[in-house]
């Protein structure tokens, strides 16, 4: 892996940490708050591609594990990684990797609507399926209750999917995926 790729991955891990400075919105009926950090997950995959996108989220999870308060609400540490939000957090590298894989695949003919679709499929549906299922298991509730509670995230996640796709298309010429396509 090149130094430039590591820098991109570290920068996106930092971007996701900065998105964590936006205060979380607790919902009350589900122990997982609404955060802006899933926007960073979608951006990492769409803009960086599969390898660097997934790596940026692995770096981020390592920062959380060592106790840095980089999650929304200033949370961090191992307790967060075994609590109700664990499934959501651990799904992020997979989501970024799959978003990146698809983005790389369609890059020469990428359109905003295609990136919105892939962000919805992997950055919203996949993250919520994994996150809600693991949350239900950890909190000893039914999976259906977890999935029903996760529907509260859908309006905001839809907006984040659109924002990530638009930003990626606007910055397309400087994306590492563009460099791969050209070289």
From TrEMBL:
Its main location: membrane. The keyword NAD does not apply. It holds the Pfam family BioY. The chain crosses the membrane at residues 55-72, 78-103, 115-138, 144-167. It is found in: Cell membrane. It is a multi-pass membrane protein. Gene3D superfamilies: 1.10.1760.20. InterPro entries: BioY (IPR003784). Keywords: Cell membrane, Membrane, Transmembrane, Transmembrane helix, Transport. Belongs to the BioY family. PANTHER family: BIOTIN TRANSPORTER BIOY, BIOTIN TRANSPORTER BIOY-RELATED. This is Biotin transporter. It comes from Paenibacillus tritici.
